[in-house]
Specification:
Layout lengths: L40 E7 L21 E7 L11 H5 L6 H24 L2 E4 L5 E4 L7 E3 L4 E4 L7 E3 L4 H13 L14 H8 L2 H5 L1
Antiparallel strand pairs: 1-2, 2-3, 3-4, 5-6, 6-7
Length: 211
């Protein structure tokens, strides 16, 4: 073959675009209640548990049990995602990147949803009639929040005082005990949110490896 055949060599290009590995689906959206909201804020009405009273005398007065009401205010969060696909650029390409851009945008949206849910779990709640009372989203002195780097934050510390400690079986049992003591409705599915660091620490425990 001619020594000049190299002039006719061609380069091959893929007919599609590979989307790099990333978190595609939301992990926390199924753990929360979704509402259709029109407005800047919205309110959620809640009713707490009551207890009955034993009858201790015949024809006595029926006790009045006042049903506890509470309210939580939610605020809308605005965010967006955008990129450009120029028609002139598409004419110069063998492939159309638009569909892959859409998948990438959906994945980014799902991760953003998870971020806001995660932030709300460890944040404060707006309580009261107009949402002017700020309270913790957890029981002070009981629950523990684990940051993304594996740091355990004591409830009530507002993320200011923390110590590095790994996830253990004892902590998992404590979480279960708190839910059991609260008589959480068994119809509601329980969820545990953690991270790769703490999963690794848990898998390094002899009890877990033996199981």
């Amino acid at each position: 073959m001619s020594f000049e055949i190299t002039t006719a060599f061609v380069e091959q290009y893929r007919a599609n675009i590979l989307l790099l590995s990333q978190q595609m689906e939301t992990r926390l959206r199924k753990t929360v209640q979704e509402e259709s909201v029109v407005g800047r804020t919205f309110y959620g009405e809640r009713i707490g548990a009551t207890a009955g009273a034993d009858i201790e005398e015949r024809h006595g007065d029926t006790p009045l049990v006042s049903t506890p009401h509470s309210r939580r205010r939610g605020s809308m969060v605005d965010w967006d995602w955008a990129d450009l696909v120029d028609e002139l650029d598409k004419q110069k390409m063998l492939i159309d990147p638009a569909s892959t851009y859409v998948l990438n945008a959906i994945a980014a949206a799902n991760r953003r949803i998870d971020k806001h849910i995660y932030d709300a779990m460890g944040g404060t709640a707006a309580a009261g009639q107009s949402g002017g009372t700020t309270i913790n989203n957890y029981d002070d002195g009981e629950c523990r929040l684990i940051d993304g780097d594996g740091t355990v934050v004591t409830a009530g510390s507002n993320h200011s005082a923390s110590v590095s400690t790994a996830l253990t079986i004892a902590k998992l049992l404590s979480c279960k005990q708190l839910l059991d003591e609260g008589d959480i409705d068994p119809v509601r599915q329980r969820h545990f949110v953690t991270n790769p660091y703490n999963i690794t620490q848990l898998l390094n425990l002899t009890e877990v490896k033996s199981a």
